[in-house]
Structures are given as C-alpha cells and as structure tokens.
Write a structure and sequence with these properties.
The chain contains 12 helices and 2 strands. It folds into 2 domains: about 35 residues; about 220 residues, MetI-like (MetI-like fold, Orthogonal Bundle), CATH 1.10.3720.10. It is mainly alpha-helical. The chain has a two-stranded antiparallel sheet. The N and C termini lie far apart (about 65 Å).
C-alpha cells in the first residue's frame, strides 16, 4: 500500500497567503472604524446632557428627562445684547494668537532640543517642564505682580502672554520629539543643489515637520481656549472669555450654562477632528510622535 501525500502547489499557497493578507487588512479596517466610532462617541457623549440642559425649562429629581422644554437659553445666548458671540470671538482671537506665538517660539526651541547636544540641555528641558509641573496658581501670582508693574494686567496682550506659560512647553516638547526623528541631510542636499535657505525651509523642512506643528498647535489652541484661572487673574474680569462667562452661569442658570457649554466644546471638537489624521499613523510627525 503506497502512502501518498498531496503537496500544496505554489498557486494554492499563494492563494492562502492572499486570503490571509486580505483578512488581516479587513480586520485592520474594521478596528480603525471601531476606534473612530469610539472616539466620536467619547467626544460627543458629554455634549448630549449639556444640550438637554440647554433646552430644559423644568427638570426636577427624580425625572430622567426634563418635564418641560424651552428655547429660552439659546435665545439668550444668541441675543446680541448678551454679547456671547463677541466673547466667543474674543476667546478664539486670543487662542489663535497664542497658537501662532507658540509655533513661532516652539519650533526653533524644539529644533535646538531635538537636534543638538549641549551642556545644560537637561536643565533647559526641566525649566521648560516647570510651568506644567508647578501649580498654575503659584506661577500666575508671581507673574501678576510683574504684569501690574508693566501695565499688562487687565488687558488682552497680558492674557495672551500669560497663556504662553502653559502652551509653550507643550509646543516645544512636541517639536523636540519631531526633530529628534528628523534627518538634516535632506536640508544639506537641497543646499548643495542650489536651493536657498528660504527655499530649503519651505520645500524640505516645513513639509517634514508639518504634522508635528499641527499637533503642537492643537494642544496650544485647546489649552488657551479652555483657560480659566490665568485669564481671570491676569484679565481681572476686564477681559471676558467663554470659560469666565460659563462659570458665571453654572450656579445661577443651568440652562444657559448648558447652552454656553455646547458653544464652548464644539470648536475644540472640530479642531481635534480636523487634525486627528496627524495624531497617529503614517502622517504622525516624521517617524512618530511617540518618540517624544
């Protein structure tokens, strides 16, 4: 009796490998969509109860939902005499200026920390981290005295400058991680081929570090947009932003507080969704932000 074994053909093995590869790709796509759905649910979930609060008129315990609904809160928010839209614009303007300044200062600082070794580098890194580690209230009280003497208290420029205290460290650290993975040989090759310094920065450096700039700008914008303590102490109540307006209504009128919370959260969510492609995957800054 002859024992015969059927050997798999090359074509059969290739088909199995192709099916296995297709199956893994399918699972990867499914996992990605599950992750995206979970992220959206995580971002949208807090807005739902806030929106319900904003349209509630009577809501007493133990009712799960309001017994009566009203658009009064949204009418108050939209009404021009309350100047909510003006405060929102003020908040956005401060956040955008802070983000721009963080980019201008954080990119060169991150390049120096990421590419070069020098004496005292570890101390510089700890000094950059200090505003994040030290309680913000302790930091701002010292700054407040200096700003009063400089005439920057109770002013938008003063608020912008104090917002750089928590935002600039994040921007610098993100860019430091980006430049740690950056190869300067590309710049040298461009210069050797006749490109000017400006052309090299515009065509070589900027496209390579752009994902990291977007991520750092995202941190800077959200931190500045949501800042309350620094704005209150340095602005002195003269500079109105959405966080200050929101906290003023938390105890007095929960419905208006709910409407303001929705207005407050939506821009940050939109900015996060627009920049989410740069947070992970192949677009993450030059080899991965995880190396920070």
């Amino acid at each position: 009796m002859v024992d015969t074994k059927i050997e798999p053909t090359a074509a059969g093995a290739g088909g199995v490998a192709a099916e296995d590869k297709e199956r893994r790709f399918s699972w990867r796509i499914t996992g990605r969509w599950v992750g995206i759905t979970g992220l959206l649910a995580f971002l949208v979930a807090p807005i739902v109860p806030l929106f319900v609060w904003s349209i509630s008129f009577r809501w007493f315990y133990p009712a799960i939902l309001p017994t009566e609904y009203s658009a009064r809160a949204w009418t108050e928010v939209i009404t021009p005499h309350n100047d909510v839209l003006g405060v929102a614009w003020n908040t956005a303007l401060i956040a955008l200026v802070v983000t721009a300044l963080s980019i201008l200062l954080g990119v060169p600082a991150g390049r120096a920390l990421g590419l070069y070794e020098f004496r005292g580098k570890r101390l510089v890194e700890w000094m950059i981290l200090a505003p994040i580690i030290v309680p913000g209230l302790a930091v701002v009280l010292g700054i407040h005295v200096l700003f009063i003497r400089a005439g920057l208290s109770n002013s938008i420029p003063g608020v912008i400058l104090v917002h750089l205290v928590p935002t600039l460290p994040y921007m610098t650290l993100v860019m430091s991680g980006v430049f740690a993975n950056y190869d300067t040989d590309f710049e040298l090759q461009a210069r050797s081929l006749g490109a000017s310094r400006w052309a090299t920065q515009r065509l070589i450096t900027l496209p390579a570090i752009f994902p990291g700039v977007v991520v750092g700008a995202l941190f800077a914008f959200i931190i500045s947009w949501s800042q309350y303590v620094l704005t209150l102490l340095i602005g002195g109540g003269q500079v109105q932003t959405l966080p200050l307006l929101l906290f003023g209504f938390v105890r007095s009128d929960p419905a208006i507080a709910g409407a303001l919370s929705v207005v407050f959260i939506l821009p940050a969510v939109i900015v996060l969704l627009l920049s989410s492609r740069y947070l992970s995957g192949d677009n993450a800054a030059v080899g991965g932000i995880g190396n920070i």
